[in-house]
Amino acid sequence: MADQFDLTIIGSGPGGYVAAIRAAQLGMKVAVVEKWATLGGTCLNIGCIPSKALLHASELFEEASHGFKNLGIDIPTPQLNLRQMMVHKADTVASNVGGVDYLFKKNKITVFRGIGSIPAPGKVLVTPQSGGQTEIVTKNIVIATGSVSASLPGIEIDEKKVVTSTGALNLESVPRRLVVIGAGVIGLELGSVWMRLGAQVTVVEFLDRILPGMDSEVARQFQRMLQKQGMEFKLSSKVAGIDRAEDGSLKLRVEPAKGGEAEVLEAEVALVAIGRKPFTEGLGLELAGVALDERGRVRVDAHYKSSVDGIYAIGDVIVGPMLAHKAEDEGIAVAEILAGQAGHVNYKAIPGVVYTNPEVASVGKTEDELKAEGINYKIGKFPFTANGRAKAMVATQGFVKILADVETDRVLGAHIVGKNAGEMIHELVTLMEFSGAAEDLARTTHAHPTLSEAIREAALSLGDGAIHI
What we know:
31% of the residues lie in helices and 25% in strands. Strands 1, 2, 3, 4, 5, 6 and 17 form a seven-stranded mixed beta sheet that branches. The chain has helices spanning 14-25, 41-46, 48-66, 82-106, 165-168, 185-196, 216-229, 285-288, 324-338, 367-372, 388-392, 421-424, 426-433, 438-442, 453-460; strands at residues 3-10, 30-34, 110-113, 115-120, 123-127, 134-143, 147-149, 162-163, 177-181, 200-204, 232-234, 237-244, 250-256, 263-267, 269-272, 276-278, 311-313, 352-354, 359-364, 377-383, 399-405, 411-418. The longest helix is centred in the first third of the chain and has 25 residues, at 82-106. It has three domains: 3-149 and 277-345, FAD/NAD(P)-binding domain, CATH 3.50.50.60; 162-274, FAD/NAD(P)-binding domain, CATH 3.50.50; 349-460, Enolase-like, domain 1 (2-Layer Sandwich). It is an alpha/beta fold. The chain is globular and about 65 Å long. FAD binds at residues 52, 116, 145-147, 316, 322-325. Its cofactor is FAD. Residues 350-459 form the Pyridine nucleotide-disulphide oxidoreductase dimerisation domain.
């Protein structure tokens, strides 16, 4: 007799494992199908978590190398132990994936190892690397298979010299020259890791700006900060091909985006970071009758249901930002919907963070979007140069920018460039979740001295004016 479950989830990344836990909390018998040896998906194994381990370690290395002396801390010149840094990364990953394993056992979630496919509604076929197939009978199926790195035509990825984010997290030595193809979040984060550890980094971007989709003023200011740190940019440019020299070095042919004479960039490593694409390979969606959109994403309704009853999808395989926390919220929502509750995600209040130094964090509308939509808005800004705690921390780069409706004072968007921006954005997320006004924030007491005072000051500047500028 085949195993029978209330819910079977294909994929154990942030969307899948959170959906599984929430469904189990709501009384469902849950199965999860995972093809990897460890749980947690791309994010925990080869994405968000290991990259943050290297970002943190490289920031401390740079600070010890260049920032301690002015603070009265005299130490010998730090020496990079890349092997130990990678051990720290591996330990961080192991701790996180082990935590998911514990939570699955605690919530009595059954894990099937192998590739999951959907031969028909109500059935999931699990094909392990060795041994026979297992068929799961299930009332509902959630597709949570995530995404994979997008590739460039004609460029071969070997994860040694020409790498995606996966290879960039596992380099055995610091490259003398690193070329990053793509000025999005992943490219800038990983480029900054290796730049801090000693690489000369050049970023090639097809568009005329970095961080597409983020507020353009924020992107311009942030680019200047990265350039001061030593990162070079070639915007409105494309990589036409990569040639490999006999000594193992790379020669990248870079052309203007609109066409023209090419130049050659030499590098030891090239990182292809042009975005990600939904991963639905091997699921058998066509045979099951599940409709996809023009970009290969599963078409779903407001309740995450696909074109086939009993089959749902969340996370990177559906429309929306490819963010782990967006997938987690969708996982909770779909579990609650299947339990007869009112699961919901407020897509207007999902933060995004670039974990560089300084960090960039945003939520809601950009100024560009408000202009395009013809919304009458006002801007409140406050620089960290006028913040006492930032001065004490030698972290005065950046600013807070809040966008509010002129008539209602309701906050429509917020953007922070600065130290710990990713931690500070959440009071603005909460404010927007409750449709709060800038005045609500301006009248909320903030502890002194803190970096977060800059947020209150930006809100005050939307009224009678900030106090400290």
